[in-house]
Amino acid sequence: MNLDLFITIGGRAGDGSFLVGDILAKIFRFIGYDVLTYRDFPSNIRGLPTYYSVRVSNKPIYAVKDFIDYLVTFELEAIEYFKKAYSENTVIIYDNSIREVKDLNIRNYGIPFKKMSINSLGSELFKNAIALGVLTYILGIDEKHVLKVLMETFMKRGEDILDKNIKAYRIGREYAAGNIGREKVITETIGEEGFLLNGNEAIALGAIIAGCRFYAGYPITPATEIMELLIAHMSRYQGIAIQAEDEIAAINMVIGASYAGLRAMTATSGPGFSLMTESLSLAGMIEVPIVIVYVQRVGPSTGIATKTEQADTLQALFSGHGEFPRIVLTPGTVEEAFYMTTEAFNLAEKIQCPVIILIDQFIAQNRETVNTLDLSRVRIERGKLITSEVIGDYRRYEITDDGISPRTIPPVKGGIYLANSNEHDEKGYTAENPWIREAMVNKRLRKLKIAKKILKELFPHKIYGYRDAKIAFIGYGSVHGVILEVVERLNSRESKVKYLQLRYLWPFPSEEINEFIRNTAKVYVVEHNAQGQLSELIRWNTGVNIGKVLKYDGRAFRPIDVLEVIENG
Amino acid sequence: MVDEKEFILKNPVWCPGCGHYAVLTALRRAVVKNNLKPEEIVLVTGIGCSSRFTDFFRSYGFHGIHGRALPAAVGIKLANPKLKVIVASGDGDTYAIGMSHFIHTARRNIGITHIVMNNQIYGLTKGQYSPTSARGFISSTSPKGKIEKPIDGVLLALSAGATYIARGFSGNLDQLIRLIEGGLRHKGYALIDVLSPCVTFNKLNTYEWFRKNTLDVEQINHSPSNRLEAFKIILTSSKIPIGLIYQSTEDTFEELIANSIGGAPIDANISLEENNYESLIREITNI
Asked: pLDDT-based confidence at A46, cuts 50/70/90?
């Protein structure tokens, strides 16, 4: 039997709705379901509404669902907020401690979570566990699974807290048994082994495993978790992760550490990346390998810190003064984010240039089921790095056929050179004469050819659907999941469509795109911005007018959002 | 013993009479006296006349961008604490665009020897006032006289918690060598602010002017181990104090971090075979 549920937990920050969402996600993962979580929350610690959605299915899932199946909420604004996400199957369960909601034409249950919690446990803190009891009973989840996850979650907070949560959970369960009844029976399924991971976690993990031993960053939503994880875990692998005074310091520390021989990384979001761009150009000029994780959020300026957008696509590709090579990787899933991070360090060292891992808040902060992280797929390749004495005349920026020159690190004997932000000769010393200038520009840009060759082998752009389809989709990053669902849905009807997932955006894959769109009647680019940045970029490169499927309200695409644009032409 | 010539990459080219010639000579002699080899040194510079040091001084070099020499030096030092990391910068680089890095590097007490060539002017861009120019100073961007108060880098370093604070003068080479030598030997962040006249654009702060308006604290029985005394001499002296203003011995950032990570990051073995990542994966994935 197919099961595909979309459950949203609402509350004010501090109500514990995230905890219910997390526990629910873990229970479903534990009994073998594919899980995807989606957090919709304000940049605020307490007081404003926050929403945590969990989609679960016994089939693989890639995106949020069109409509909510169950909305469980501790505050009443949520009922209005989600009005466009209701279908005839939606059930609303809300806390009626404050008031009853009249005239709802959706099936609904008012339950006094807050009052029940205060009456039986002396505090409203346990209303979320009561709600968990109600929901898991209605869904017919075996009690033993819930208890196991409750134990795991609350054991570390002490027995008293655990006992009270279990008690509250049982109160909710009994209430549901007496007043609502079972609506579903969710049994264990034979899902693959695996775990829940978000993009930030996958990237932090990938970095350490790839041998990154230096991280400097500055707190910024939605990238901060990467720094927190690295500060927590890097030290046991003899690495340093530090909080710098600002993003400019962070990237320059990273450049310095890499110059001295470490694999080094920083992570930031739009405002921080804007500050880093002068130094990005420095890394390009002195050919120091660095990795920058760029987690996009809603802009311009401060924008909406906790919401998703892809409006920095062009900034990631073109920022920084002057011309220098860079690589921009665009993982579309959490799993890809892991493997791409491990390869980002190889690419940075092989090509000796900045590598940007471009994701957005959706991938960074929402958890997905990841079946396995296969360490045998991880390699450490450091390119033309010299760590022992150099005999003879050493030229750090030697003009080579592929543009890549041997790189020493201090204190290698015979390897002295100047990493020079000024235009320089082969030894790194300041040079302004025209033929050296031209030769150096060519040498640096030549490296992109090798980059392209490696990337084609490592992360070929993926084509889904019917190869001969006349209708085509293109997208990168967080829209990957939603396009997959749209393609699946359309192809299961009479339509024939295909989809190209771009897994890197620089060097820009114009040949692959040209090849993909040849003989198509209509091409759509799905992206989270208002002007269709990728769509325009493709038009500049191909001369073909591209349909734009855009969303810039800060929320993730639902399949229906894409389908509506296609169907309305 | 290493020869001074080992540290000569090129003969320097600044305006004839520029104070920076003496600073370069002093640095070369100080590294020789400290028995350092060119490979062990990373000289980091930003932008400005002072930052041309990396064109003339032979060692590993890093010529970065305006104001950001310190964070790059921090990255280098933390990656490999065995390297001798020296920063050469100017008053604009350090006390204007790079001010926040200056304060933060000082308070972190990271082992960097920081020489600031302070000429109270922007020379490379041909004569704009700097944060250390005096009130009323006439320049191309202060034609009616500078309105702002000047910044005192030495006072700032002292309040920020720097552990070696000295001020030298290009007109006093012997003392300058000693001050840089002391900075190189010092454990932690060392600031050597050097009054280094710009003979082309700064017609006020000349060699003669500095000779008249400086006070050598070594001549007046100043105790550099006393922080309060150091504040007192900076705040009360009618002349600019030069010499070793303050020094204390404190743990460095890199020492404290080495205690918790078990060694220098550069010595970490990053091969997949040598590391156990299974427990890390379990912790991060909550299994």
From this structure: confident
Q: Which residues of B145-154 are buried (b: 16+ CB within 10 A; e: fewer)?
A: ebeeebbbbb
DSSP A285-336: HHT--EEEEEEE-B-STT-BTTS---TTHHHHHH-SSS----EEE--SSHHH
Q: How confident is the model at residue A569 (pLDDT cuts 50, 70, 90)?
A: low
Contact residues, A window 207-226, toward B, CB-based 8 Å cutoff: 208-209, 211, 213-214, 216
Amino acid sitting at position B59: S
Q: Are strands A68-73 and A4-12 parallel, antiparallel or unpaired?
A: parallel
Contact B29, B184 (CB under 8 A): no
User: Is the model more confident about B238 or about A190?
Assistant: B238
d(CA B193, CA B152): 10
Give the chain B residue whose CA is nearest to the CA of A225: B284
pLDDT digits (tens, 9 = 90+) for A532-563: 999 999 999 999 999 999 999 999 999 999 99
What pairs with residue B88 in β-bridges? B45, B115
Q: B97, B94, B92: which is closest to B114 by C-alpha?
A: B94
Domain ranges of chain B: 4-261
Q: Which amino acid, residue A466?
A: Y
Distance separating alpha carbons of residues B35 and A48, to the nearest angstrom: 63
Residue B230 CA to residue B246 CA, distance in Å, equals: 6
Evaluate whether B223 touches B229 at the Cβ level (below 8 Å). yes
Identify the architecture of domain B4-261 in CATH: 3-Layer(aba) Sandwich (3.40)
From the list B59, B74, B264, the residue facing A416 with the nearest CB is: B59
Taking CB atoms and an 8 Å cut-off, how many pairs form between chains A and B?
191
DSSP state at residue A186: B
Rounded Cα distance between B133 and B150, Å, is 6
What's the complex ipTM? 0.98
Rounded CA gap, A429 and A41, in Å?
Answer: 51
CATH top class, domain A462-567: alpha beta
Q: Which has more confidence, A303 or A192?
A: A303
Cα distances (Å, whole numbers) of residue A25 to A57, A215, B112: 11, 31, 49
Contact between residue A329 and residue A357 where contact means Cβ atoms under 8 Å apart: yes
- The domain ranges of chain A are 4-179, 196-377, 385-458, 462-567
Q: What CATH number does domain A196-377 carry, 3.40.50.970, 3.40.50.300, 1.10.720.60, 3.60.21.10?
A: 3.40.50.970
Q: Is A196-377 the same fold as A4-179?
A: no
Percent of chain A with pLDDT over 90: 89
Residue A499: which of A249, A332, A277, A251 has the closest Cα? A332
- CATH, range A4-179: 3.40.920.10
Contact list, A256 vs chain B (CB under 8 Å): 44, 62, 71-77, 79
pLDDT tens-place string over residues A213-270: 999 999 999 999 999 999 999 999 999 999 999 999 999 999 999 999 999 999 999 9
pLDDT digits (tens, 9 = 90+) for B8-65: 999 999 999 999 999 999 999 999 999 999 999 999 999 999 999 999 999 999 999 9
Q: How many CA atoms lie within 13 A of A115 on its CB side?
A: 9
Task: Residue count of chain A, please give it.
Answer: 569
A385 touches chain B (CB under 8 A): no
pTM of the model: 0.96
